[in-house]
Amino acid sequence: MTTHALVLTSSILGQQGQSIALAEHFKQRAAGRDDVRVTERDLVAEALPHLEAAELSSWQLAVDERTAEQRELAARSDRLLEELRAHDLLVLAVPLYNLGIPSQLKAWFDRVLRAGETFRYTEKGPQGLLEGKRAIILAARGGQYAGTELDSQTPHLKAMLGLIGITDVQVVYAEGLAMGHKDVAMTEAKQAIDGLVERL
What we know:
alpha/beta, Rossmann fold, two-stranded antiparallel ribbon, 6 helices, 7 strands, oxidoreductase, EC 1.7.1.17, EC 1.6.5.-, Flavoprotein-like_sf
């Protein structure tokens, strides 16, 4: 069975970004597999605007009730949802900016975390509607934060993925990149990626 992987990059440093290097390594290893197909979306090159009320309200109307402008606004999210649904594996290459995720990645999540589309509210709380998908987080960080109170990024990403039903999440960390550990950290992270690709 073919695995369809959607790779999202969000580094403002382009090819100089270490999260981009991790994504490239994943793509190179996946290219060696006949049963893996990769789609990439660069959320910086194809930046989404911050979510505003007009776009949010367009989702809440029936299709035949939308104005031309509202149809255009809703189509932005609809395209991303269609792309996400078409893939089995989501790969997030994520730098750490001020202890959080890049705003470009948040703008993507703001459009795929949609009530009635990717999750629904029940009497017991929200229920994800995209169950059966997997995710890999490739986290590149200048400092060493994993497992500490300062790592708010990992729980945030896992919570957003869990909201839509993606609970099978693997995390690869490349940390201490600005602390003299870059070569070792990147080598170990790439080895971890190799293992994950082998098990796809």
